[in-house]
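Design request, tokens follow.
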């Protein structure tokens, strides 16, 4: 019995691949491009830092929450069907975001887009795994990683161009048009699949516990700046989220058909692979999202200029996955490539601390290239290594797990960074404001500086001092990113160097520790078993 039965009589796998790659390009542009648009959205809709953070974090949150669920749904309902549903949802939410009259509506649109993105990524990886095999699968996943890098890389430039032409809604109109073309290609490909025969019932209890727990944790981090880190609201929300996550783990241990086979996490190698996107969130995504605000506020660059400067960080993301694939093909161990990729974040963040308040683009060249290269090297290997290391019937689950860790870590880290930026920069700004300003006016100035609206600050205030305050508040955060990236680099290296072990299988639903799968393949993508491949080609 096979996982799927893909019809090859009228199927055009290359058309399917083109549709998937286009979708994988489009989705990340909404992440990286939104960072450039934030100051313009703030100027048009609201300068509330907390509400503005949800434009980014709302997307990341729902993307993370639903990735694990979407992976299980893909295994239950079929990957192609799920991919089309995800594309339709992403299209509708992009239109809603472009037309949003208020920041609240925009936040809702972005949250819905995250759900669609989760379905798209989970179903895309799983569909590639069952449609291609052998060398073709390796090429498809290499292109998958490259496409994700292209989306992240071009996001700021596309956003800057759209803002210059039609304003901030342009980025969402682009998303809508491109994802519609992607969905059409998937339909025209003629590739079909059926649900996994042994998928069992969907774990609704686990899905609800996971979704609510992660939502509470991220909400606590995002709102901490408004509520106060030591407030009852923040601590209570955080505690509730952690408690519910413990409930989720318990459900996965004891359930008959869990969303996540906890036994997979007993593999040091898989845990090491999952730490790679966490390092990317810490060392790259935070700066990709909020460094444009520094360029806009401190260096006073226009949207177009900011987009061009950010290319120094994002172009390597497009090229580095190909480098990672070539290095691995030539026998360079995965632990060297991925452990080394995290070290690039350490050097990049440390060098950014030398960028002052004077406009000096040359000072950004080396750190930006290091950051982009580090992220691209990780993107090029993680998905294929993780998905290709498990049996085909677990492809959707592991694809969803990788996306969950990637987006969940991004949501948490970006939210924490934004809160720390607001606190750190806010403290520096307040120290430069005259005592004659009333508290409400002081809060308004802080919000304007933090969100990149320094041009709207009262002209009687010293704008130069405020720009210096932003720069001074950012430097400690850059050092924090460097230190955390170093810790993750060491952990990734140690875990990936450990050999995989096997253990007797424990029955599903048992409280005993499940068996650890063998997660140490030599090739980036493990081919499907011969019998399964033959039936899929039928």
């Amino acid at each position: 019995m096979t996982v799927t039965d893909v019809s090859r009589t009228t199927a055009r796998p290359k058309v399917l691949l083109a549709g998937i790659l286009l979708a994988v390009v489009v989705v990340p542009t909404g992440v990286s491009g939104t960072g450039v648009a934030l100051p313009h959205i703030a100027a048009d809709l609201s300068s509330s830092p907390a509400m503005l953070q949800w434009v980014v974090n709302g997307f990341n949150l729902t993307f993370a929450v639903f990735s694990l669920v979407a992976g299980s749904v893909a295994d239950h309902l079929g990957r192609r069907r799920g991919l089309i549903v995800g594309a339709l949802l992403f299209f509708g939410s992009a239109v809603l975001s472009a037309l949003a009259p208020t920041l609240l509506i925009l936040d809702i649109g972005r949250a819905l887009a995250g759900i669609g993105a989760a379905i798209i990524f989970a179903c895309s990886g799983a569909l590639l795994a069952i449609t291609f095999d052998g060398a073709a699968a390796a090429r498809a996943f290499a292109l998958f990683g490259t496409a994700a890098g292209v989306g992240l890389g071009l996001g700021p430039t596309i956003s800057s161009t759209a803002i210059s032409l039609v304003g901030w809604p342009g980025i969402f109109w682009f998303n809508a048009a491109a994802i519609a073309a992607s969905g059409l290609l998937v339909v025209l490909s003629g590739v079909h699949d059926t649900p996994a025969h042994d998928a069992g019932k969907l774990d609704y209890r686990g899905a609800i516990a996971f979704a609510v727990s992660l939502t509470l944790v991220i909400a606590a981090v995002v709102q901490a700046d408004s509520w106060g880190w030591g407030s009852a609201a923040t601590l209570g929300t955080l505690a509730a989220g952690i408690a519910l996550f413990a409930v989720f783990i318990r459900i996965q241990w004891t359930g008959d058909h869990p969303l996540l086979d906890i036994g997979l996490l007993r593999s040091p190698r898989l845990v090491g692979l999952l730490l790679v996107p966490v390092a990317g969130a810490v060392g790259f995504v935070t700066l990709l999202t909020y460094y444009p605000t520094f360029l806009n506020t401190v260096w006073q660059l226009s949207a177009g200029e900011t987009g061009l400067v950010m290319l120094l960080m994002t172009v390597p993301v497009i090229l580095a996955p190909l480098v990672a694939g070539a290095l691995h093909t030539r026998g360079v161990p995965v632990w060297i490539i991925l452990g080394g990729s995290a070290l690039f974040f350490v050097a990049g963040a440390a060098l950014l601390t030398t960028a002052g308040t004077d406009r000096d683009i040359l000072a950004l060249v080396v750190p930006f290239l290091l950051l982009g290269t580090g992220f691209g090297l990780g993107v090029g290997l993680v998905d294929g290594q993780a998905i290709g290391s498990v049996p085909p019937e677990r492809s959707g689950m592991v694809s969803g797990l990788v996306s969950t860790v990637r987006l969940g870590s991004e949501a948490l880290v970006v939210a924490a960074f934004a809160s720390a930026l607001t606190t750190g920069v806010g403290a520096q700004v307040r120290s430069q404001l005259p005592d004659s300003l009333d508290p409400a006016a002081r809060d308004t100035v802080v919000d304007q500086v933090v969100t990149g609206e320094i041009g709207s600050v009262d002209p009687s205030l010293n704008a130069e001092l405020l720009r210096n305050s932003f720069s001074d508040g950012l430097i400690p955060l850059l050092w924090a990113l460097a230190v955390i990236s170093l810790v993750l680099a060491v952990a990734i290296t140690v875990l990936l160097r450990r050999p995989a072990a096997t253990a007797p299988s424990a029955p599903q639903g048992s409280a005993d520790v499940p068996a650890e799968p063998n997660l140490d393949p030599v090739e980036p993508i493990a081919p499907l078993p011969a019998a399964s491949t033959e039936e899929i080609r039928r």
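Comment from the thread starter after seeing the answer: thanks! DSSP finds 17 helices and no strands in the chain.
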